[in-house]
Amino acid sequence: MKVIIIGAGKVGYTLAECLANENKDVTIIDTRVQALQKIEDNLDVLSINGNGVSTSILLEAGVASADLLIAVTGSDEVNMVCCLTAKKLGVKQTVARVRNPEYSDELSLIKDELGLDFIINPEYTAAEEIASTINFSSAINVERFASGRVRMVELKITCGIDIIGKKIKDIDRQSNSSVLIGIIVRGNEVIVPDGDEEIKENDIVYVVGKMSNIYKFCKIYGRYPDKIKNLMIVGGGRITYYLYKLLNDMNIKMKIIEIDKTRCEELSEKLPNALIINSDGTDEEVLMSENIEHMDAFLSVTGIDEENFMSSLIAKRAGVKKIITKLSRTNYINIVRDVGLDGIVIPKRITTNKILKFTRGADLQSLRRILEGKVEILEFVVDNSSKLINKEIRKLNISSNTVIATIIRKQEVVVPHGNDIIRSGDRIIVITMEANISTLRELESAVIGGNQNELRNGIKKLGKIISM
Amino acid sequence: MNFAMVLKNLGKLLVCEALSIVPAALVCIYYKENEFWSFLYTIIILIVLGVILIRIKAKNKNIYSRDGFAIVAIGWILLSFFGALPFYFSGAIPSLVDSFFEASSGFTTTGATILGEIESLSRGILFWRSFTHWIGGMGVLVLVMAILPSAGAGSMQIMKAESPGPNPGKLVPKVKETAKILYGIYLIITLVQLILLKLSGLPLFDSMIHTLGTVGTGGFSSRNISVGAYNNIAAEIIITVFMLICGANFALHYQLLKGNIKGFFKDGEFKLYIFIVTVSIILITFNLNGNIYNSVKESLRHASFQVASIITTTGYATVDFNTWPSLSKLILLLLMFVGGCAGSTAGGLKNIRILLLFKAAKRDLLKIIHPKAVYTVTLQGKAVNEQTLSEVLGFFFMYVIIFCFSVLIVSFEGKDIVTTISSVATTLGNVGPGLEIVGPMGNFSSFTVFSKLIFSFCMIVGRLEIYPMILLLMPRFWAR
Predict the structure, then answer these.
(1) A197 reaches B (C-beta below 8 A)
(2) Does the pLDDT of residue A164 top 90, yes or no?
């Protein structure tokens, strides 16, 4: 698959990295030589210095025979024009990043008129993610599958939670097996657990199931999510704008703190009922006077990572339970986690993941990549000719780094056990450490058949030995 | 420095070298020669060492640019050393230093020899000598990348360090694919020339030797008096054309394969290359006509072969140009510095650098006339960034400095000035023959062991475009 990326910024770089690792032919175009230099040095992709709007540059990049063009430059207009030109020159699919709120209401029109196949608005998507996490306060993160019928919740096991030291099968029995503990992250290790795995303190677990069941699960083990009523937001950028719109209907009171006067005025024009405070969000005094202690949740989404980090630390000190920090760069993740700020939102990563999902093709209903892509959670609709159907799951011989997390049959959500059977038309959610799966068939060949799989792994290992 | 990864990659390189000896060993079997055993011993040594190195476990799998340079520089020294073993084991060249000289001359596609008598050598040894040209021409590490899996991003660093030219680029997004395409084109050119030479009437074995020598722009022959021994005009024309083809940028050949013929005429470097070749041929033809040869046709024939041979740094000869008038000899000596195009198998400074140096010089002159004017140096309508320009200037300086130092060291021998200067120019430019003692009919055997090592160093420095080898000598390079 040939992919052209226009714009070698943060998102462009990450996309190029992921796609090159998925063995796709990536060509990246940018006007800045330095950005390209970094890419040339680190990644196995072709870089072209020039303007992605220019026809000759696009032709030089081989647009006519390319499968996909992704425009992620800093300017919405450039992105749209790139896609339009590229489409005329014969690229099969185009993806553009369009982030200006003024366009956000007209996205579907733009999409149709310009023949775009996919539009991503990173701030809106980030706001959606933040909103779903805020709705479920015990979780570090919440992911939605099967149009929201199934959720995956990321929980940190801290002392006081009743499942430390218990084995998964015991937890299952106690909670009536309505949810599945799909992944455990312990330090740098990722485990796809079986029944005998024990949960330890400071693990991060990913729990999959129906929303109501996850609520129940949390209730049993003493992590009942509080309803968030008061939220303080530092930074009045685009994320805040979208988030306000999303959360306003849910009866959450929001305080927005923004340092720039003109921005405050703009926001107040657009959001007439919002409480907007023109002040410095990294000033402890200011936050205290705005009653930070009584907030249920705190959100720092300014454009500067360092400021977000500092405000979040102040909030943590003031005892706010739920804190979400926005980071633009991934460099700080480990530091931020180490000081105990677990709720991290990285718009760049969300954007990348959405686009990557799109590149995998239409068969894949949803794709979540966690832990830098080490683990992927995939959603498929099982068709008639699949090898998975009408067989007890235990007889499928699924390899040990893969779990079928849930089966969704009409309105019913099942966390499957060995005796359950997948039928045609079911949706399945699969957690796997196998990389680069884009269709159901690939999934089948990658995970089914224990013996075959061992042979395949053996060959893989041999290949690795030879190559290294 | 990531030593584990460097050693691992060197291991891969040694295994690849072992594989590349196999064809020579097969030739030995075909002609039932005893030299087979010396090849077999070398293969065994290489495989054992290579596998030991490959098994080293690396924690950090990244190759940074300095690791890439280290792999290339050390790799080429090892390559030449182990490539010399068959010569030494078989007794074809009794001295180890001489064998090393011959092998580095082979891999760097120089074609300079310490052997006076070639025709008595066994076929296997002759084949191996020429085959080193073929592998060395396109780059051994590029070959490693093309055939072995797991060529990640780091391999670009290796390719950059090994490929000639100021800005080696990729043809397609993946390094591995690029390496495959380059070798594919190389293979096609090789086969076409082999068939044509056979048709022109050369024996199959001789066609093979001269094809390998031509496409790698090396210059080892199977005859004492090189291509001149056949006195076959058709073969001379074929070799001339193929030398020129292989002295041009392979990226242009790729464009041609994709149906873009115009690429050749638009390329500034290629135009300069053809211009220099044409002017040199015309000048030498006039200089020779009446002086040495009696007809224009005869003069043109020898002038064009020799010019193509020297500018592409091949080093074949149809006549002893040592007896030519000094204008012709001087032109040839200057061509040794110019060399072929970037991204080719040829050596020398490369035409692209000459072109950029001229443009930069012109800009500096213009700046004196209009001190406040802003000029950018352009190449095919695209601006060349300042860093590339300063790198080219730096490269030119280093080339000259290394040339001067080597001439000084070699002059301790007390040989005449022309021999001393031309011997260094020819080895540094990877050409092969020089003038006087080291002329096309002469050889390097009369130099001392020390000078031979200096020449070997010059050849590898010239092939790797200076930086990797000089970096090896810097203590900072090894510091953590």
Answers:
(1) no
(2) no
Give one DSSP letter per residue of B142-171, joined into a string: HHHHHHSS---TTHHHHHHHHS-SSS---S
Q: What is the pLDDT of residues A340-388, one digit of tens each?
A: 787 888 888 888 888 888 888 777 777 777 777 778 888 888 877 777 7
Q: How far apart are CA A104 and CA A111, in angstroms?
A: 11
Read off the pLDDT of each residue in A271-278 and give the average, rounded to a whole number.
87
Give yes or no for a contact between B21 and B35, defined as CB atoms under 8 angstroms apart: no
A131-145 b/e (C-beta count within 10 Å ≥ 16 → b)? bbbbbbbbbbbbbbb
- Asked if B174 lies within 8 A of A44 by C-beta distance, the reply is yes
CATH of domain A2-120: 3.40.50.720
SS3 content of chain B, % helix, strand, coil (to 5): 70, 0, 30
Q: Cβ B172–A26 below 8 Å, yes or no?
A: no
Look at residue B83 in the predicted model and tell me its pLDDT: 94
Phi and psi angles of residue B44, each rounded to the nearest 5 degrees, phi first: -60, -45
Predicted pLDDT at B258: 85
Asked if the Cβ–Cβ distance from A44 to B8 is below 8 Å, we say no
pLDDT top residue among B227 and A171: B227
Question: Looking at beta carbons, which residues of chain A come within 8 Å of B155?
Answer: 44
Chain A residues inside the 8 Å CB shell of B175: 44
Least CB–CB distance from B149: residue in A42, A43, A467: A467
Residue type at position B185: I
Per CATH, the architecture of A230-350 is what?
3-Layer(aba) Sandwich (3.40)
Identify the helix (H) or strand (E) that includes residue A11: helix A10-21
Q: Where are the alpha helices (DSSP H) in A256-413?
A: 261-270, 284-289, 305-317, 333-338, 347-359
> Are residues B65 and A41, on separate chains, in Cβ contact within 8 Å?
yes
**CATH for the A382-467 domain, from 3.40.50.300, 3.30.70.1450, 1.10.357.140, 3.90.190.20:** 3.30.70.1450
A211 by Cβ neighbours in 10 Å (0-12 / 13-18 / 19+) ranks as middle
How close does chain A come to B174, measured CA to CA in Å?
6
The conformational region for residue A277 under phi > 0 = left, psi -120 to 50 = alpha, else beta, is: beta
Predicted model pTM: 0.81
- Percent helix, percent strand, percent coil in chain A, to nearest 5: 40, 25, 35
Nearest CB partner across the interface for A467, out of B150, B157, B177: B150
A138-220 and A230-350: identical CATH topology: no
Q: Does A467 touch chain B (CB under 8 A)?
A: yes
Q: Is A112 part of the contact surface with chain B (CB cutoff 8 Å)?
A: no
Contacts of A468 in chain B (CB under 8 A): 8, 54, 58, 150
Q: Is A67 on the interface with B (CB under 8 A)?
A: no
DSSP state string for B412-427? GG---HHHHHHHHHHH
Number of neighbours of residue A250 by Cβ within 10 angstroms: 12
The domains of chain A are located at 2-120, 138-220, 230-350, 382-467
Find the closest chain A residue to B68 by CA distance: A41
Q: Which amino acid is at A208?
A: V
The residue of chain B with its CA nearest to that of A17 is: B153
| CB–CB contact B152 A25 (8 Å) | no
Model ipTM over 0.90: no
Q: Which distant-in-sequence residues (6+ apart) come within 8 Å of A54 by Cβ?
A: none
Residue type present at position B477: F
Give every residue of chain B whose pLDDT is below 70, as ranges: 148-154, 167-168
Q: What is the pairing mode between strands A427-432 and A375-381?
A: antiparallel
Residues β-bridged to residue A428:
A380, A407
Q: Do A20 and B153 touch (CB under 8 A)?
A: yes
